[in-house]
Write a structure and sequence with these properties.
By secondary structure, the chain is an alpha/beta fold. The protein has 2 domains: 121 residues, Rossmann fold (3-Layer(aba) Sandwich), CATH 3.40.50; 77 residues, Rossmann fold, CATH 3.40.50.300. The protein contains 9 helices and 5 strands, in the order βαβααααββαααβα. It has a 5-stranded parallel beta sheet with strand order 2-3-1-4-5, sandwiched between helices.
Length: 204
Amino acid sequence: MKPNKMKLIGITGGVGAGKSLVLQLLQKLCRCRVLLADEAGNEVKLPGQPCYERLVELLGRQVLAPDGTIDRKKMAERIFADPALLERVNGIIHPEVKRYILKQVEEERSKGEIDYFFLEAALLIECGYEAVVDELWYVHADPAVRRQRLMESRGYSDEKVRQIFDSQLSEEEFRAHCRVVIENNGDIRETERQLLAALSRENG
């Protein structure tokens, strides 16, 4: 039995938990669309989009790439050392990202071609998406597994991994906000089994 209407499900979890793998599996297992909040953030910063002029006015033309787009690395360097500036930039970008995402969701709802819309972001809870999605799913992996993944795939040092872990929500906080927990410690078949179980619960 299919859901009566498209469900909007937020996928969240700490860095290195394997959210990308979970989303790949979900695309195989059901009729869905996946949207990454990072991609939406890039979209609203493009020339002609809502955030572009305001960000250039705030940060200066030195953050532009030769093609006129906002250079993410230059922007990061400009705001990294200035918490007040970072807050102002987030105040410009986050509302527009939310508007962009909700517009995409409404478009998919009106088409009626998919059963699920999965929205992925590490900061779904912190940015208030709990009020927007139908429910949140937490992708969990043990800290040792996450540390190993980040060191192998991104070349992070132990210290960098520790800083990232310290800056994110605790496991208890993630679990308190999320209706479904997917354990993703490396056995893909087990992860897939949990996703099938979660989808069948939704369909039931």
